[in-house]
From TrEMBL:
Annotated PANTHER family: BLL2771 PROTEIN (PTHR43271), INNER MEMBRANE TRANSPORT PROTEIN YNFM (PTHR43271:SF1)
Species this protein is from: Virgibacillus alimentarius
Keywords noted in UniProt: Cell membrane, Membrane, Transmembrane, Transmembrane helix, Transport
Keyword Lipid biosynthesis set for record: no
Localization, UniProt: Cell membrane
UniProt domain Major facilitator superfamily (MFS) profile: residue ranges: 16-395
Annotated protein name in UniProt: YNFM family putative membrane transporter
Length: 400
């Protein structure tokens, strides 16, 4: 008898969905846990602001490498293997990071952790697509993606809160214990793949698929938008703790970490974008999202904390609205190798994270928060204008 894919009524559907949601929550909490702690590392290790920011950007660099490598390997050796290895590889560094006295070793451990983190996003969506019924997969995917935003938000808040009350080492031990519990649950509960078929396509063919996409001008514009959006968004959040800890605000790390609750609008922004696009079209909503993102960034120039927080909320709404639509538009631009096109967008997205957390350090040094805000607020508008002009040229070229 032929096996049926899991539907929302099946117990195994929920076993898979809950396991991946928990794993996703932990992976993204690990990824961004250091962001509110960057000022702490400056004092603790005696490093500069730009060096401190490497704690995030090198993690993302490891993630980018892992997405490419582990994505290929999961197509050949299975999905659940790399989901479990990803969790194990993410937990282990949290046991070593608190005892290291060298910031260089700290950064190397974060680089390795970033590579391990990639195993889940490289395999999870493919695993869901293989095991779930077409009518039920939307629920599982939505819960998985919502857990990404939730993990990123609470990872920042929890580490900030625990560090302010105890120490950054305690925060990392807490994440390590939490990850170990989730790892055991996933090992015990996550069902084996039933429909996975090992890819027999040579690596050279996969590389050819990547190269084909890099010759598509319309796709390159989308990849560039992914970089720019995340560059600006990450830049604001990376330097925000340095800004708010100084006069005239003088906020504690705990208070600063609470600002990351603005990420909660990311859970609203993505489905909201999917709904409103049915009325106004993808292009108009995406343009509006970019304008809202920039507006929110400029609102953080205010002199009051409540206005800055409101600006962060507006920026989050604009960013997640635009990001979800940009990611969705990738598949519309290609007719083959759609998986590799989505992977390339993901790589571009995280290039923006890595560069936004470190490349802006000279602007911070010379122009402070105002320099960061003006640069990150204007950049998306400039790139939007560039995309609009280039898209019209491409449309005219195709019409000939």
């Amino acid at each position: 008898m032929q096996q049926q894919r899991y539907t929302i009524r099946d117990f195994y559907f929920w076993k898979i969905t809950v396991c991946l949601a928990l794993a996703s929550f932990f992976i993204f909490a690990c990824m961004y846990a250091v962001q509110p702690l960057l000022p702490v590392f400056v004092k603790e290790f005696g490093v500069s602001v730009s060096e401190s920011s490497l704690a995030l950007s090198l993690t993302i660099l490891g993630l980018i490498i892992g997405l490419v490598v582990l994505g290929f390997l999961s197509d050949r050796y299975g999905r659940t293997l790399f989901i479990k290895l990803s969790l194990a590889g993410s937990v282990f560094p949290f046991l070593l990071l608190p005892v290291t006295e060298s910031f260089l070793i700290f950064l190397l451990l974060r680089l390795m952790q970033g590579f391990a983190l990639a195993g889940l996003p490289a395999a999870a969506l493919a695993y869901l697509n293989e095991e779930m019924d077409r009518k039920s997969i939307g629920v599982a995917t939505a819960l998985y993606i919502s857990s990404n935003a939730l993990g990123g938000m609470l990872g920042r808040v929890l580490t900030g809160y625990i560090t302010d009350h105890y120490s950054w080492e305690s925060a990392f031990y807490f994440l390590g214990i939490l990850g170990l519990i989730i790892l055991i649950m996933v090992f015990v509960i996550l069902p084996k793949s039933r429909f996975f078929e090992s890819s027999a396509v040579p690596f050279t063919k996969d590389i050819e698929g990547f190269l084909i996409h890099l010759k598509n001008p319309a796709l390159l514009l989308i990849f560039g938008l992914g970089i720019v959006l995340q560059f600006s968004f990450t830049g604001i959040w990376t330097y925000l703790p340095f800004y708010l800890e100084k006069p005239p605000f003088g906020l504690s790390l705990q208070a600063i970490s609470y600002t990351f609750f603005a990420y909660g609008l990311g859970v609203i922004g993505s489905p909201f974008a999917g709904w409103i696009v049915n009325f106004f079209g993808l292009r108009k909503v995406r343009i509006a999202g970019i304008i809202v993102l920039s507006l929110g960034v400029f609102m953080t120039l205010a002199s009051t904390v409540w206005m800055i927080v409101l600006g962060l909320c507006v920026a989050c709404l604009g960013f997640f609205t635009t990001h979800s639509l940009t990611a969705a538009s990738v598949s519309d631009q290609v007719t083959h190798h759609k998986g590799s096109a989505s992977s390339l967008y993901l790589v571009a997205y995280y290039v923006g994270v890595a560069s936004g957390s470190s490349v802006l350090s000279p602007i911070w040094s010379f122009a402070g928060w105002r320099g960061i805000v003006w640069f990150t607020g204007i950049l998306p508008i400039i790139y939007l204008s560039f995309v609009t002009i280039m898209s019209r040229k491409l449309e005219r070229k195709q019409a000939r």
